[in-house]
């Protein structure tokens, strides 16, 4: 076996060793005896028996960059990629990224249409996009999202119309039955995480919405998975365990919509989970109203935290517990030790969030980035130090960059990543934060720790970082130390908002003009500063050129201190 083959084998081994046994078994079943959806057209569908109608409509999805006219003209825009696929749509269209095609089959766009228009597009999908193995729209994940949209739009928002439109209702009912029959036999146990929770929510929604024997089966399967996965996936401090603010919003949104169909103990339990999730949803939001871009996160994908918070207050007035207080969350320090996120919400417009977290669940780190001890910083209510975001999910240069350590505001050693990322979602060997300690007083907040992500390298380097925010001087001090058996090269990066401009640059000091004002970045110790170009990807499919301040040093015991402060003149 040559060196390349051995490295590939080791990469697979170091990826697979973190998986759960059930994942491996499920993956083998999919490869060896994968079921096919073609047989769905021949299954007997029982008669429609009616609804257990919810008393309110669900919270609509966020559909950015699209409007009713475009949809009716066959123009669809997902991930900032605008394509004309015809009217009625060509559901078999393939000349687009996989995530774009997933979005097409979610049917979120139906919420922008009136009843006859949504009915026409849905009927066309049912009659023309037949069950077929390997087709994007029949993957369990888009099935789960689409079913939730159909249930909410047609059987909640348009209850009266669907009750009078018997022909379309029966067409829709047969399709829902077949899709959920397929989904219940193809739950995503090979992936687990947010995919499996979406599967469970879709089954539970329809299990409670419809009457009859099929609904009882969906309800039984969905609830069993739902209860187990909520315990697994929602951390004690309320954050979704994949530690992506974007996916946290998605799971919060889906659970809030599920709750409108529930009753009794299960509704109470789900509302308790939602109440826990609302606080981190609000906390991990910058003063500009957008989420922190930690891990796979992007703007304009799901409803914002304030939208979900208000919807929760309006829909569950009699059931809700205490809600996060806007004034409270903007005046002080937050600590989420189970998640590993810490920071400052200052009433003066300062927002600091620090990622001292593991990369996510070891058995599914697909949405993780190389960002241990990275951070984002807003000053004067405007973003200044930014995460590079996420551009796409396709294997290639941009996916590799956005996951990499160099795309984040932390230290890279020997031009390697903290974890061995490969493919679009795979991780082999990975690092873990160690000895994380956070504290605060009336005048400051501080956090310290180290990680072992680079111990796989020659000379086994470790990165130690401490960060202190001084409330009085409005200054962030970052102390970095890299210890290794022999000399290594290290680089810390600070990615700056694209709206900023460089005013002064020396080897020890840089002054930047940004929307937040005039900002000074200085370094002391075993390092020097320079400015390079990078890219900022705040949304899928969107990239903007920005500057990155790079602090470089080398040695076997390197130390430097970086100061970031807003100048008064």
| Most strands sheet | 10 strands, antiparallel
Which range does the strand content fall in? 25-35%
- Summed up, the helix count is 15
- Predict the CATH topology of the domain at 330-566: Beta-galactosidase, Chain A, domain 5
Looking at the structure, what is the overall shape?
Answer: globular
Quick check: average pLDDT? 94
Quaternary assembly? single chain
SS class = alpha+beta
Radius of gyration: 25 Å
What is the name of the CATH architecture of the domain at 330-566? Distorted Sandwich
How much helix is in the residues?
25-40%
| Number of strand segments | 19
Tell me about this structure.
The chain has 569 residues and is of the alpha+beta class. Among the domains are: 1-33, no CATH class; 330-566, Distorted Sandwich (Beta-galactosidase, Chain A, domain 5). 34% of the residues lie in helices and 25% in strands. It has 15 helices and 19 strands. It has helices spanning 3-16, 21-32, 68-72, 98-106, 115-128, 140-157, 159-164, 166-184, 193-209, 213-233, 245-259, 264-283, 305-315, 326-329, 397-403; strands at 75-78, 81-84, 332-336, 341-345, 351-355, 374-379, 382-385, 411-413, 421-422, 426-427, 433-440, 444-451, 462-470, 475-495, 501-505, 509-514, 517-525, 528-539, 542-566. Strands 8, 11, 12, 13, 14, 15, 16, 17, 18 and 19 form a ten-stranded antiparallel sheet that branches. The chain has a five-stranded antiparallel sheet with strand order 3-4-5-6-7, with no helix packed on it. It has a two-stranded antiparallel sheet with strand order 1-2. Helix 5 (115-128) crosses helix 8 (166-184), helix 6 runs antiparallel to helix 8 and helix 11 (245-259) runs antiparallel to helix 12. The longest helix has 21 residues, at 213-233. It is globular, with a radius of gyration of 25 Å.
């Amino acid at each position: 076996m040559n060196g390349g083959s051995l490295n590939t084998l080791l990469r697979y081994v170091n990826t697979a060793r973190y998986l759960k046994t059930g994942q491996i078994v499920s993956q083998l079943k999919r490869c060896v005896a994968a079921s096919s959806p073609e047989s769905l057209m021949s299954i007997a569908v029982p008669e429609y028996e009616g609804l257990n109608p919810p008393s309110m409509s669900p919270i609509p999805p966020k559909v950015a960059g699209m409007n009713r006219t475009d949809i009716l003209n066959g123009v669809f825009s997902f991930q900032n990629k605008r394509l004309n696929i015809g009217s009625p749509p060509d559901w078999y269209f393939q000349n687009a990224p996989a995530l774009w095609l997933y979005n097409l089959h979610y049917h979120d766009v139906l919420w922008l249409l009136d009843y006859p228009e949504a009915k026409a597009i849905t009927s066309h999908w049912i009659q023309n996009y037949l069950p077929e193995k390997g087709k994007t729209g029949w993957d369990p994940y888009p099935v789960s999202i689409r079913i939730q949209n159909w249930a909410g739009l047609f059987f909640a928002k348009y209850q009266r119309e669907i009750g009078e439109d018997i022909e379309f209702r029966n067409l829709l009912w047969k399709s829902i039955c077949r899709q959920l029959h397929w989904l219940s036999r193809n739950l995503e146990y090979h992936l687990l995480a947010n995919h499996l929770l979406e599967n469970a929510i879709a089954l539970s929604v329809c299990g409670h919405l419809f009457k009859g024997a099929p609904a009882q089966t969906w309800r039984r399967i969905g609830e069993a998975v739902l209860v187990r996965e909520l315990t697994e996936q929602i951390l004690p401090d309320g954050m979704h365990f994949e530690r992506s603010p974007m996916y946290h919003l998605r799971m919060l949104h889906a659970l809030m919509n599920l709750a409108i169909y529930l009753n009794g103990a299960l509704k109470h339990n789900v509302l308790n989970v939602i109440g826990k999730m609302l606080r981190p949803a609000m906390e991990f939001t910058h003063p500009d109203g957008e989420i922190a871009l930690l891990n796979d996160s992007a703007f304009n994908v799901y409803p914002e935290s304030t939208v979900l918070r208000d919807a929760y207050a309006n829909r569950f007035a009699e059931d809700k517990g205490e809600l996060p207080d806007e004034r409270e969350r903007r005046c002080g320090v937050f600590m989420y030790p189970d998640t590993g996120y810490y920071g400052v919400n200052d009433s003066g417009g300062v927002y600091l969030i620090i990622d001292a977290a593991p990369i996510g669940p070891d058995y599914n780190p697909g949405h993780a980035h190389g960002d241990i001890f990275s951070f984002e910083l807003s000053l004067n209510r405007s973003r200044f130090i930014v995460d590079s975001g996420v551009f796409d999910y396709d294997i290639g240069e941009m996916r590799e960059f956005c996951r990499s350590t160099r795309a984040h505001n932390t230290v890279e050693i020997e031009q390697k990543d903290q974890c061995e990322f490969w493919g679009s979602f795979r991780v082999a060997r990975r690092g873990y934060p160690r000895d994380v300690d956070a504290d605060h007083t009336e005048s400051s907040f501080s956090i310290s720790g180290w990680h072992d992500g680079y111990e796989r390298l020659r000379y086994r380097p470790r990165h130690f970082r401490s960060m202190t925010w001084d409330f009085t001087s409005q200054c962030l001090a970052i102390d970095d130390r890299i210890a290794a058996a022999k000399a290594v090269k290290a680089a810390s990066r600070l990615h700056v908002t694209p709206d900023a401009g460089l005013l002064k640059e020396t080897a020890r000091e840089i002054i930047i003009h940004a929307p937040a004002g005039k900002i000074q970045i200085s370094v002391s110790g075993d390092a020097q500063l320079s400015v390079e170009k990078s890219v900022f990807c705040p949304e899928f499919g969107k990239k903007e050129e920005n500057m990155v301040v790079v602090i470089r040093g080398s040695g076997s015991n390197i130390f430097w201190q970086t100061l970031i402060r807003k100048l008064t003149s």
